[in-house]
């Protein structure tokens, strides 16, 4: 074969092999991706554990995987399943409530001796439409949680197999991750400084997206449990639902505590409803801002609207794991854009200078 054809032929082979490998690994992309994310975020604790164990990397990796499974993975799965079960109960109770009481009675203040609606006039509200809306919201929320739990436990064998894959992949990423990264940097046509920048950016945004969100949701869940316990609402259920809804940008846990407060007001529990609203806006919201600001201080920040759509897209593509994979795919896009900015910073700067000069000349001519 002529030498001038060797490189094109090799490149075609490399492309075909990469496509083939992608098709082979495609069914396991969510598991591999989640394992890579977990290993990236917790690599420093793994190194510290390795040092404590005097360089025994395999033992440190085994212990690290066990810690992550016991502390994060299994509790999260159990919380989701518990939340799904309780959402079914809540939906059934909502249906039963409106079966016994028409919305006209509720809005007319005939349900609950201290109902706030005794003092308000809601006769002009389309009651049936409003009642249907409440039932629809309750049913949709219940269906979403049930679907998430079903995806996780649909077929015990499939779920266990997926979990085992994540754990095994994490183990090898902990043990051989550094060598894998160095090999990729060697094969990459980009300069090493850009390869390192991609990895650092991915790690930082992964931290701010997942760890900060988890910590903020956890503290919100604790704050929510305390507030709901004060009014007599089951604290553990409140913790789970506030924790889960807190992962959603913008509305977050308000999706849960605002309807609960409205329910208290509907049934005449005035101080409980007002207290929950104030506790949610003042305490839970403040805790979220403080913890999230502290956790992502000095890290890369992503606009919440992009996180919101990345979560929705991730759920559509990857199921329940998409809650994490979606934002991290967004992370990769931000990282590549950052590399583009570094590579073409001179051209971008020159263009900005030219634009500013043109604008300045136009302003001078006008004057």
Helix content range: over 70%
Radius of gyration: 27 Å
Beta fraction: under 5%
Number of domains: 2
Can you write the helix and strand succession as a string? Answer: HHHHHHHHHHHHHH
Number of strand segments: 0
Oligomer: single chain
Brief characterization of the structure:
The protein has 367 residues and is mainly alpha-helical. It contains 14 helices and no strands.
Q: What is the fold's blueprint, element by element?
A:
Elements: H1 6-25, H2 29-41, H3 43-52, H4 57-100, H5 103-107, H6 127-153, H7 156-187, H8 192-230, H9 235-245, H10 254-266, H11 270-295, H12 304-318, H13 322-343, H14 345-366
Report on the architecture of this protein:
- This protein is mostly helical and 367 residues long.
- It folds into two domains: 27-187, no CATH class; 189-343.
- Helix content is 81%, strand content 0%.
- It is built from 14 helices and no strands.
- Helix 4 crosses helix 7 (156-187), helix 4 packs across helix 9 (235-245) and helix 10 (254-266) packs antiparallel against helix 11.
- The longest helix has 44 residues, at 57-100.
- It is elongated.
- The chain starts with 5 loop residues before the first helix and ends with a helix.
